[in-house]
From TrEMBL:
GO CC annotation, single: mitochondrion
Domain ABC transporter: 221-510
Top-level division of the source organism's lineage: Eukaryota
Database matches in Gene3D superfamilies: P-loop containing nucleotide triphosphate hydrolases
PROSITE patterns to which the protein is assigned, alphabetical: ABC_TRANSPORTER_1, ABC_TRANSPORTER_2
Database matches in SUPFAM superfamilies: P-loop containing nucleoside triphosphate hydrolases (SSF52540)
Protein known as: ABC transporter domain-containing protein
GO molecular function, one term: ATP binding
InterPro entries: ABC_transporter-like_ATP-bd, ABC_transporter-like_CS, DUF4460, DUF4461, P-loop_NTPase, TCAIM
Length: 563
């Protein structure tokens, strides 16, 4: 009986690697028309291969896709090849045709083992009806049971049941360590005359003890230098610097030598901190999530009055909702701590009151489980830390409807968001994405960028590298950094980019797409004074560099931005 060998995503990517090396849009930066053709064809091909992975053939894909192949000559845009897309359900056959049409090696595909012959299904005859019944339904029933079990394990209730004993065991194993840390804290605070000592790194308590011992060792060796810490709040964090609140932040991954270099220079950092307000850019008129009106001090009175008039209802609704949620959250928090007999219940700064309320409402019914003495931390992923702290999950990436789906059943946009979620497990303050929208259709692109924007507003700094920019995507960004031939020609807010280009003689036609205009200028297709743009960008960078000398990660004390 004939059978088809289905390929994994990794196998498909490996097989098509020679193809990507000659058609990737990044190879055609000097030829925008050819680049656009390859970009569009790759999107269609990606959707077709994704459908094949889900055991179906995408009939909407054209049977022929045009691609330009990279030329070895710098001034040659390359030749166009018409690549056939087979309507076969066999991925190997489809990939082989693609490679052969471009005269590329198919050696990897040829070496793949063939799928074993599928045996004939055994059938049982029922004499009372003479009908045949395929015993495959017995297998389907087993699969159905396994799926239900997997779903139970992935729910909050199932996950807690499977991990609560481990969390309690780990916590009990570290009771002595916690007592030691408490004594060390008191000793260090008294020795250095600190206002407070905090641990906001997210790593386990063993690492906190190591940090305290290192600081104690420095106090013994360099008592004079550590006098700069007197009457200050010291925080062990994910970076080294001075926060906007004036707290001293020490990166838990640094060595003692780096700590000492920074502590000796604290007076200089304080001086830079005082200069920051003079360089801060005024924010836009807006209504905050808590219902407050935020306006720059230079805003004209008539504009401010008009904005308040138009947004008064929305501000009042947000304020009422926030006050209500705040009281509901406090009430639910007390009930959870009491009902579940928790040692502590805390949350990540990026978890808003509405999400916290939903999570606490799901936790309350679990009072029959033995939570006694547990530390629960509400964040964006499931985990049991080595010190027994339980991390819960809050849906941040809009994947709730995919919770029970197999990974291979996800769409392109869902795949991208899943990959982002995997990186969120370590709760990084800064995330960098290289072409996060490559190969996606317009709808999936907007979904991915929107959730990146949400991540930025949850307290992270998100940096994206995007080569093919659309006007819709551009609207989601707070700041842009435009490169031309490896040099920065603009860095700043999205609203200021067209006026800045006009100052240098680059004029955007009326009703012209702003994103296309930016790409035109960057690729040298518009007439203007590029040197003037370069000089203004350098001035802006030098000003920002002066601010950055005061601390390495200002984002920890401010709302994140998507740049």
């Amino acid at each position: 009986m004939c059978s088809i060998r289905f390929l994994s995503n990794a196998e498909i990517a490996t097989a098509l690697r020679p193809f990507y090396f000659v058609v990737h849009p990044d190879l055609f930066g000097r030829f925008p028309d050819q680049r656009a053709v390859n970009e569009e064809s790759l999107k269609l091909l990606s959707a077709h291969l994704e459908a094949l992975n889900k055991r179906r053939v995408l009939q909407s894909t054209p049977t022929i896709l045009p691609f330009y192949l990279r030329s070895s000559q710098a001034n040659n845009p390359g030749k166009m090849v018409r690549v056939p897309v087979e309507r076969s359900a066999d991925p190997k056959k489809v990939l082989k045709k693609i490679l052969q049409s471009c005269d590329l090696s198919t050696e990897y595909l040829d070496k793949m083992p063939q799928a074993p012959e599928r045996p004939e299904r055994r059938r049982v005859n029922y004499t009372f009806t003479q009908q045949q019944q395929d015993d495959v339904f017995e297998d389907e029933f087993v699969i159905f049971q396994n799926i239900n079990k997997a779903r139970d394990d992935k729910t909050l209730n199932g996950w807690i049941k499977n991990n609560i004993d481990m969390a309690l065991q780990r916590k009990n194993n570290l009771l002595g360590l916690r007592e030691e840390i408490k004594k060390l804290e008191e000793k260090v605070i008294e020795r250095l005359n600190l206002k407070d000592l905090r641990y906001e790194c997210g790593w386990n308590v063993e690492h906190y003890r190591a940090c305290l011992r290192s600081l104690e060792s420095l106090a013994n060796l360099h008592p004079k230098d550590l006098s700069h810490l007197e009457n200050r709040i010291l925080v062990f964090a994910a970076f080294t610097g001075i926060s906007l609140d004036g707290h001293v932040m020490l990166f838990t991954g640094d060595v003692q030598h780096n700590w000492m270099d920074f502590i000796r220079n604290i007076p200089k950092h304080d001086a830079y901190l005082k200069k920051i307000p003079a360089y801060e850019e005024a924010g836009p008129l807006m209504v905050s999530p808590t219902g407050q009106f935020i306006a720059p001090s230079t805003c004209p009175g008539w504009i401010l009055v008009d904005f308040i008039t138009n947004n008064l209802t929305e501000a009042r609704d947000r304020s009422t909702l926030y006050k209500s949620n705040k009281h509901v959250e406090v009430d639910l928090h007390e009930k959870c701590v009491t009902s579940l007999r928790l040692a502590s219940l805390t949350k990540d700064d990026s978890v808003t009151p509405d999400k916290m309320i939903k999570c606490l409402e799901r936790l309350l019914p679990e009072s029959q489980l033995n939570f006694t003495g547990c530390d629960v931390f509400i964040t964006h992923y499931y985990s049991v830390l080595s010190d027994g702290t339980i991390d819960d999950i809050v849906k941040l990436l809009g994947l709730e409807k995919c919770l029970h789906n197999h990974v291979e059943k996800l769409s392109g946009g869902e795949w991208k968001r899943l990959a982002i979620g995997e990186e969120l497990i370590t709760n990084p303050p800064v995330m960098i994405f290289d072409e996060p929208t490559s190969g996606l259709d317009s709808v999936s692109t907007i979904q991915v960028v929107k959730h990146l924007k949400d991540l930025a507003h949850s307290g992270r700094t998100i940096i994206c590298v995007i080569h093919q920019l659309s006007s819709l995507v551009l609207e989601y960004f707070d700041d842009v950094y435009v490169l031309s031939n490896g040099q920065c020609i603009y860095n700043g807010s999205v609203e200021d980019i067209v006026p800045r280009f006009q100052e240098a003689g680059f004029y955007c036609p009326q009703y012209y797409n702003r994103a296309d205009f930016i790409l035109d200028v960057a690729s040298g297709q518009r007439q203007g004074n590029l040197e003037l743009l370069l000089s203004k960008a350098r001035e802006n960078i030098q000003m920002q560099d002066m601010i950055e000398k005061s601390f390495h990660a200002i984002n920890a004390s401010t709302n994140g931005e998507l740049i």
